[in-house]
């Protein structure tokens, strides 16, 4: 416990034992030992007896002084490390060299850990997952707080919303940069972070952990950390998808590449699907996939083609289904692509296209000369199949919600008044999720003039927003409690508490 003290000229327990063994007056020997090895301040000698009268042990007093001095020293070290002094590295190395004789003392170890270089910390972290979890957990919590702050920001418009920042700009965030620095080229630390993200995603259902999983990999890609990127089987898929997110569209060429990656998952490698599903569950990926789906459906309508005849559309639906099933897959540890319900393609999408045709027909009718107009009125009801799958199927519901956003962006008040009341009943109350409400609010800013009419206000507020208010507040409370419990009980993320997944190593390709 006291190893290293003699090297610094400080007496230790063995010295005290020898003194007491050879002395004739033990009390005087102890008093002399305290005087020689205590804090050498003349003004303190008169104060120590006062502490004795109050029953304060000398150990407690010296420990409090030690803690205070250690905190001051750490502050000074941090100041030196962040300064511009060219000799700062030399000063820190000299300080470490003086401290190394005491490396076996627990009270000194924490100080040495803090001041040592990140390269040294990586070697310590990789053999101590609990310690690494202590370092990573505050960063993960900070990341979630920042994402939620962006969702609830009052600075909101169609041009500035949650999805506005580019992927590369998002990767410049403080948390992503810190995690990237902490990991460096260490595959084992990277795997630990992925385990933490899987675990927290499973326990909180918070999709922002999926975003961080993708951002972290692409941040390492930006730095050309081939030691990690070359062994993560999700790297090329994530890289291709990242390009699609940047363009906010999945074109035919990239669709073929993405399909090749999914089809390339061989027998024995199915665990890779767990991480791929998390990457596709990322809200930024989901946003891109659904926007591409809506655009694809519009092109099919102009070509008089059926949804089931489009391979690109089938792939988009396949990836949406895989992303939506991420939580179930990781929870069950059954790594198999979820089967897309055929009737989503054969019944729901045609029903949605009929809504588009209704709107187009009415718009054309309104532009005709008065003598050519008929008594056509805008439909108020929605097809039964549209409502049914909005409530029963999560992929269909996601497409329906984004079509509503598309209509709001087009400032089509008639279609919006028709659609909003139907969103009160959706699959797992997806319409009351933070992300959808955030986007819808931004899109509604385009319709400021329409809020002057009672009919439109009734559809927006009475028909949807007031219903969403009570449910979203309840959802927010439950989500906050769940997230806080997860962080309070699992602040130390250890191997026993993490969810397994595909490790970023060659074993992913062999199934070992």
End-to-end CA span: 43 Å
The succession of helices and strands, N to C, reads: HHHHHHHHHHHHHHHHHHHHHHHHHH
Shape field: elongated
Helix proportion: 55-70%
Q: Averaged pLDDT, please?
A: 83
Strand content: under 5%
Profile the largest sheet: none
Number of domains: 2
What low-confidence regions span 5 or more consecutive residues with pLDDT below 50? 476-485, 487-491, 503-512
Q: Which structural class do you get from the secondary structure elements?
A: mainly alpha
InterPro entries: COBRA1
Pfam family, one: COBRA1
Protein name: Negative elongation factor B
Organism: Oncorhynchus tshawytscha
Detail the topology: elements first, then pairings.
Elements: H1 13-22, H2 26-37, H3 48-53, H4 58-82, H5 88-99, H6 106-115, H7 118-125, H8 129-151, H9 167-170, H10 174-183, H11 187-204, H12 208-222, H13 226-229, H14 235-247, H15 252-263, H16 272-281, H17 283-302, H18 311-324, H19 326-332, H20 342-367, H21 384-392, H22 394-409, H23 413-419, H24 434-444, H25 454-489, H26 507-510
Helix pairs in contact: 8-10, 8-11, 10-12, 11-12, 12-14, 12-16, 14-15, 14-17, 16-18, 16-19, 17-18, 17-22, 20-21, 21-22, 22-24, 23-25
